[in-house]
Amino acid sequence: MNFFIKTFGCIQNTADSERIKTFYWNEGFIETDDWKKSDLVIINTCIIRESAENRVYGLINEIDKWNIKNNKHIKIIVTGCLAGLAHKDKTGKKLSQLKRDFPAVSEFLPIEKISFEIEPLRGKSEIALIPISFGCSNFCSYCIVPFAKGPEISRKIEAILNDIDKAIKDDFKQVMLIGQNVNSYGNDFTEATLVSMGKKRFKSLFPKLLEEVAKKDLEKISFVSSNPWDFSDELIETIAKNSNIDRLLHLPFQAGDDDVLKNMNRGYTSKEYLELVEKIRSKIPDVRFSTDIIIGFPGEDEKAFENTVELCKKAKFEIAYINKYSPRKGTVSAKLYKDEIPMKEKKRRWIILNDLINKK
After folding, report:
1. What is the pLDDT of residue 192?
2. Rounded to whole angstroms, what are the CA distances from 126 to 5, 219, 224, 346?
3. What distance in Å separates the CA atoms of residue 85 and residue 53, rounded to the nearest whole number?
4. Contacts with 27 (C-beta within 8 Å, 6 or more apart), sequence order
5. 2-113 and 127-357 have identical folds
6. Mean pLDDT for the chain overall
7. Per-residue confidence at 122, pLDDT binned at 50, 70, 90?
């Protein structure tokens, strides 16, 4: 029996798929790189944007039509964010609707059923992906992730370090710690609170975890993704004193205008973000930054966009992942704000930022 897995979306989904592969290997399946030669297709879904969700639906329909045409019976299992969002709807309406719309799907499988303690089946990558947390509790207004994956849940430090030891035993010299917000790791373990960038936060255990990982026989340790409000002085010091921690830090800012940031529920101002960048640079002189930017968010007039451009010039990012805003059904921004920026204007702004940062 053969299985084929298609992964959409973020690096968290890639890591999840590595565990899914092991699960089905243990069930006696053998992986194939051609879904037409498989008995089972697993689709690990992303719904962060409507276009990603539509690609999932397209693949389901393609497999269903091929089954009918060729009198085949390839089983389809859908997991990831789409299944998560449906199962977390307590009314049951979303799951029932999916089952009605896609009768060819045998199961909508919540990823939580694939245990974190399953050893991942990694590919030929030089970097071992190590999940440290699952879900998100931040509720940025444009983001569907907290509704699809649920609140942030941290793995135990011992389990994470055990995974890293296994990766080292398998000759990996580089690891990447991953979570929706890695530097809030351990918030669900501790009752100690602090105020960061004006928001009441829990004291993160991420610096402690990172310190322990840095003691391992590893050439490079990287992590994604980080939110500015949890980037503590302790975390900066930990990175500064351990040379095997990657100097390319991914620090999303999303927008450089304070009103837009407020509407995004990002919890910091552009001034606070730049102060953090400068603080990190003062402690880690060889640091470089990558970032995420959303352009065309509701309320981003020309002046607001220029504020984003100015922040980019000051921050001197090495890489930027620039996304054109589109309202995501089920998010706060889709409910509260009109998508008022024309796509032509979003494309113009995208080109300006891409030329400024990515075409240096």
Report:
1. 47
2. 21, 11, 17, 36
3. 12
4. none
5. no
6. 92
7. confident
Cα distance between residue 320 and residue 311, in whole Å: 12
What is the domain class of 127-357 according to CATH?
A: alpha beta
**235-269 pLDDT, tens digit each:** 999 999 999 999 999 999 999 999 999 999 999 99
Domain 2-113 class?
alpha beta
Q: Please, are residues 256 and 308 in contact by the beta-carbon 8 Å criterion? A: yes
Question: What global pTM score does this model have?
Answer: 0.91
User: What pLDDT is recorded for position 269?
Assistant: 95
Three-state SS letters, the chain = CEEEEEECCCHHHHHHHHHHHHHHHHCCCEECCCHHHCCEEEEEECCCCHHHHHHHHHHHHHHHHHHHHHCCCCEEEEEEHHHHHHHCCCCCHHHHHHHHHCCCEEEECCHHHCCCCCCCCCCCCCEEEEECEECCCCCCCCCCHHHHHCCCEECCHHHHHHHHHHHHHCCCCEEEEECCCHHHCCCCCCCCEEEECCEEEECCCHHHHHHHHHCCCCCEEEEECCCHHHCCHHHHHHHHHCCCECCEEECCCECCCHHHHHHHCCCCCHHHHHHHHHHHHHHCCCCEEEEEEEECCCCCCHHHHHHHHHHHHHHCCCEEEEEECCCCCCCHHHHHCCCCCCHHHHHHHHHHHHHHHCCC
Domain boundaries, the chain: 2-113, 127-357
* pLDDT digit string, tens, across residues 26-38: 999 999 999 999 9
pLDDT for res 162: 95
Under the banding of pLDDT at 50, 70 and 90, the label for residue 201 is low
Is pLDDT above 60 for 18? yes
